[in-house]
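Researcher: I'm preparing a figure for a lab meeting and need a structural model of a single chain. I don't have an experimental structure, so a prediction will have to do for now. The sequence is pasted below. Please return the structure as tokens so I can convert it later.
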Amino acid sequence: MEAKLDLTNFETEVLKAAQPVLVDFYADWCGPCKMMAPVVEKMAEKYAGKVKVGKCNVDENMELAQKYHVFSIPAFLLFQEGAVVKSSLGVMSEKEFEESLLLSGKADRTSSARPAEHIGKAD
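Model: Understood. Here is the structure written out token by token.
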């Protein structure tokens, strides 16, 4: 199950987490975000105990979105030891999502639709 992330718990739940944390930056009105929701949920179940998965609504948490340069959604950032180690942007298949963000040893890939080099770098 995904945790709801906001300014009050982001540091504790993400930056100080003992395990990797995948953050889904989304908005309720975003069609592509809705398309990715079942994939994110499935990965949260599949990787339970190995990777924590959280969702951050950009409309309610603009400061976090700006801090991590999230200007397009859906955006997915994988944090480890308080830093972004992988990122991806846009709609992708379940396989692409898992390979680009969750499987170790894979190159940091982005969705073929939109590059994600600009996201995840905190100010």
